[in-house]
Design brief:
It contains nine helices and 13 strands. It is α/β, with parallel strands linked by helices.
């Protein structure tokens, strides 16, 4: 790269054959396919050199190209979305790769900036975001991934179970805050390619959380905190709530 600033690519993995929600990237949300909302949110982030949807299905490819976006087709089997974007990144000229999940819509440009800016100013090889959780209902939901970190902000563990454990009936107000992990990652390109070469870990397989592969193989993950909102579409039932939120223009700060 000739520029002194690293070239940042935002890659959005979008798989058609989700078990819980087939065709989710193309589900209509506030008059647009879900994947378009994610793509357009990424366009509002400064210092991003390239944005591409990385998909396994021509229907998603055509939809992205139909709204003027860029996409690439990776048809070979991949273990996870991160492995899919690693294949795309191996063919790209970039220094840093952001893995923005195709079902996680940032509702404020500061969300991704809270990840990209500190990462570029650090020596971290891999990073992600967390956000405070206040509701015990959310803490106990397996679909909400929790993270605990050390004092340097490096991830100790990610889990679908509540961490830390509330021993002896302690109340939420008497312990450190629970943190939700946002499924958004940032990598040095060479670290991403190395991650994709690692074997699936025991913990990764148990929790179905790909980031645990990195921890199991000694790749530290720096975690930064954000308070900016995002909208996660996990199941069909989430669409109704999301439609109501996105219909309110004041809730989206782009």
């Amino acid at each position: 790269m000739t520029s002194s600033r690293p070239a940042v690519a935002v890659l959005i993995p979008a798989r058609y054959g989700s078990v819980r929600f087939p065709g989710k990237p193309l589900a209509e949300l506030a008059g647009k396919p879900l994947i378009q909302h994610v793509y357009e949110a990424a366009k509002g982030i400064p210092h991003v050199n390239d944005i591409q949807v990385v998909t396994d299905d021509t229907r998603i490819l055509q939809a992205v190209e139909g709204f003027g976006g860029h996409a690439c087709l990776i048809e070979s089997p991949c273990r996870t979305g991160t492995d899919r974007i690693a294949k795309a990144a191996s063919q790209m000229d970039c220094d840093v790769v952001v893995n923005l999940q195709g079902d996680e819509i940032p509702l404020h440009p500061g969300l991704l900036s809270d990840l990209i800016e500190p990462f570029l100013n650090s020596k971290a090889q891999m990073g992600t975001l967390k956000r405070p959780l206040k509701s015990m209902e959310r803490v106990n939901q397996p679909s909400v991934v929790k993270v605990v970190t050390n004092q340097a902000g490096e991830a100790l563990y990610f889990s679908r179970s509540p961490i830390p454990c509330l021993r002896d009936g302690n109340h939420l107000t008497s312990i450190p805050t629970f943190y939700m992990h946002l499924g958004i990652y940032i990598f040095r390109r060479e670290t991403l390619l190395r991650f994709a070469e690692l074997p699936t870990g025991i913990l990764e397989e148990a929790e179905k959380l790909e980031q645990l592969r990195a921890l199991e193989h000694g790749v530290p993950i720096q975690v930064w905190e954000t308070t900016h909102p995002s909208l996660r579409i996990d199941q069909v039932e989430d669409l109704m709530e999301a439609n109501e939120l996105l219909s309110n223009a004041e809730s989206v700060k782009f």
